[in-house]
Amino acid sequence: MALAEKDTYRTVTDRRRSLFSRIFLSPKFTFYPQVFRVVWTNSRQAKKARYGDREWVKGSLDILHIVENVGVEVEITGMENITRSPGPVVFVANHMSTLETFVLPCIIQPVKPVAFVVKSSLLTAPVFGHVMRSRDPVAIDRKNPREDLKTVLEGGRKKLESGISVIIFPQSTRSVEFRPEEFNSLGVKLAARAGAPVIPVALKTDAWGIGKKLKELGPVDTHKKVFFAFGEPLEIEGRGAGQHEKVIAFIKEKLDVWQAQNEEK
Question: Does residue 161 sit in helix, strand or coil?
Fold first, then answer.
């Protein structure tokens, strides 16, 4: 069943954890071996050209359950907004950790075919590169903003015109803090160019921390709850300045609410 068949998804707090997680109680010893197993399996499938939409969604859902297996609670809200626009849309989200890259496909792909805008370096990454290349993302270098803009507008427009939605993280890098001044309007510009609506996505995924040496291998904090929230579709008007501000306001409001909830515990 697609997650987005419901408006809201929440981890069942008394769900039975996996045997592996129950034997090795520390997330340090349970989380990454399980993640690596999924990534390795998916990579082998992708290398053999056997990694399609169904396998992508399954692998994404496996990661979501692994997060829950080690004791992290997940809440996803606003999923009804994904289906409010019948055609493809541009999902514009803040970027906090590796988690959203893994989990967003199992939320969106069963409802709307989707592709990421990613750093080109991910396409040549060991093991995971096979998976990323198989999904045919829009790849940018993040070195030349003008070239990145051209790549996103052209490549993203082609995706949208072919019925494929696009996920874009306008921040230059993953960050626990949300700084509106560093949140560019690339997603809104793409939507304006393609005549597609924008769906704002707020997320709080710092339960999967950013590593010091390898960003993907950060600490896992089971005391932090993971949140995803999808806003209502926004039709672009003019150059989209107003919609860009609405996206920022949506993300900031959700992050403030979630932070306040954590402080109350």
Answer: helix
The tens place of each residue's pLDDT in the chain, 265 residues long, gives: 457 567 899 998 765 555 555 555 456 678 999 999 999 999 999 999 999 999 999 999 999 999 998 989 999 999 999 999 899 999 999 999 999 999 999 999 999 999 999 888 888 888 888 999 999 999 988 777 788 889 999 999 999 999 999 999 998 788 888 999 889 999 999 999 999 999 999 999 999 988 777 777 888 998 899 999 999 999 999 988 999 999 999 999 999 999 888 766 5
Helices 145-161 and 186-194 pack at an angle, to 10 degrees, of 40
User: Residue 210: what are its φ and ψ, rounded to 5°?
Assistant: -90, 125
3-state helix, strand, coil in the chain (%, to 5): 50, 15, 40
pTM, to two decimals: 0.91
Residue 242, amino acid: G
- Per-residue tokens: 4: 């987005």
